[in-house]
Amino acid sequence: MVNVEKFIEKAVGEIRNAAGNEKVVMALSGGVDSSVCAALATRAIGDRLVPIYVDTGLMRKGETDRIRTLFDGNLLVVDAADEFFAALEGVTDPEAKRKAIGERFIRVFEREAKRTGATMLLQGTIYPDRIESEGGIKSHHNVGGMPLNIDFKGVIEPIADLYKDEVREVAGGLGLPVEIQHRMPFPGPGLAVRVLGEVTREKVAIVREANAIVEECLVEKFRPWQCFAALVGLGTGVKGDVRLHGWIVAVRAVQSRDGMTADPLLLPYETLSRMATRITAEIPGVARVVYDVTPKPPATIEYE
Amino acid sequence: MLPLYVVNNHGQFNHLILRALRDMDVEATMISNETPPAEVARGCRGIILGGGPTLDRIGAAPAYLDLGLPVLGICLGLHIMATARGGAVRRGASGGFGAVEVDVLDRDGILQGYPERMQVWASHADEVSVVPEGFVRLAESAICGVESMASPDERLYGVQWHPEVSHTVNGRLLLENFNRICSE
């Protein structure tokens, strides 16, 4: 495990040296990686760091407001929901969805970063991203710089030698709120990967409510590594004597150290039952709730 | 002291091997499986062949078995060892995904200190069907006859499961045993 005090001191020094007198821009998602980077860089160069938060319209319930409260000051919040939903129209293939979102994100960030006049880019790349990209397992867009049409003088990656659980230790050492330190991983493409098939505003609204209910029922009591809800398809239900061709919501809750392997939580039946009741009662379009009991491998944690 | 080399065979857990070694304070470097064997022989005191999706992308990895250095093959690394030494690999009747109960047949050497039965995590469709000459089986399970094998004289060891993932119970012990063998 990383020595937190030493790491912070060294990272702050390195950021200060790398940045010189330049202005530095970064994409802040509010996840633990980018939050730790923002906190380190703020210690190093103060308000010469400009964090940009892109609201893709695919965020969790209340997330954007919460990030705004947690990171006041320099944070630049960009509402880009319309652009993202337009880019996703008619796209059903999971990889095509991820690509459409990644591409749109980069273009929005590029546009906003240019406006700030920053000359350096800071990124929250962590160690497994680097190894996986070098090894050709999968390419991470943030390794070696996002493909931006901006000629930055340099890219700073302060946590590139750390694993996720070590980043959480550093978050504690930096005095970040517990909420951020233990924030569940949230995928880059947001709720889009929790809607199978085409992504629309209506479906995202439903899955957002379902995610909020699952988190309310599970996070504090069971401390899962990750938990969420996904819209997996349509099925027949009957609500108030009326037939409903409604959504099937899959609930997933797993334990893991690093996301590489995972085991479903053995939840009490009454908890499962309460989630099913709440999700079907509070969200009109949902007809059915199922619990996913597959480990990783063979399944992945997210659905797409 | 020279580092251990972790050979990247394009498996998603390969970097976790590095992490496990780092947590043990053992110096280790990940190398491409295209690295020339002579360079590997000069640079390390032991080799871990990581897992991966296919025997079609193992580069020069089979040649690393002939350098006189200790080798630990994990998952596909085990299959590389089996096929390079005249054994065989086939699609298993049942894949091993997630938790697997393994019976340890030989609790010396690489599996020293483990109980007779233990839970490990695996992710494989293929398995060793013919153990090469000079090798002995070290562990088996209900779904796979060769969960582990070794040629102790040559210090070649293979396991079908993944000691580097956190869900394998006490996987670290296996890596500690291998590190000890590499230090002898």
Notes on the structure:
The complex is a heterodimer of chains A (304) and B (184). By secondary structure, chain A is α/β, with parallel strands linked by helices. Helix content of chain A is 42%, strand content 19%. In chain A, the strands form two sheets. Chain A has a five-stranded parallel β-sheet, sandwiched between helices. In chain A, strands 6, 7, 8 and 9 form a four-stranded mixed β-sheet that branches. In chain A, strand 6 and strand 7 form a beta hairpin. In chain A, helix 1 crosses helix 2, helix 2 (32-45) crosses helix 7 (164-173) and helix 9 (201-222) packs antiparallel against helix 10. The two termini of chain A are 31 Å apart. The mean pLDDT of chain A is 91. Chain B is globular and about 40 Å long. Chain B has a single domain (4-183), classed as Rossmann fold (3-Layer(aba) Sandwich), CATH 3.40.50.880. In chain B, 21% of the residues lie in helices and 34% in strands. By secondary structure, chain B is of the alpha/beta class. In chain B, strands 2-1-3-4-9-8-7-5-6 form a nine-stranded mixed β-sheet, with helices on both faces. At the A-B interface, helix 6 of A face helix 1 and strand 5 of B. Chain A: Keywords: ATP-binding, GMP biosynthesis, Ligase, Nucleotide-binding, Purine biosynthesis. Chain A: Heterodimer composed of a glutamine amidotransferase subunit (A) and a GMP-binding subunit (B). Chain A: Catalyzes the synthesis of GMP from XMP. Chain A: InterPro entries: GMP_synth_C, GMP_synthase_B, GMPS_ATP_PPase_dom, NAD/GMP_synthase, Rossmann-like_a/b/a_fold. Chain A: ATP binds at residues 29-35. Chain B: Keywords: ATP-binding, Glutamine amidotransferase, GMP biosynthesis, Ligase, Nucleotide-binding, Purine biosynthesis.
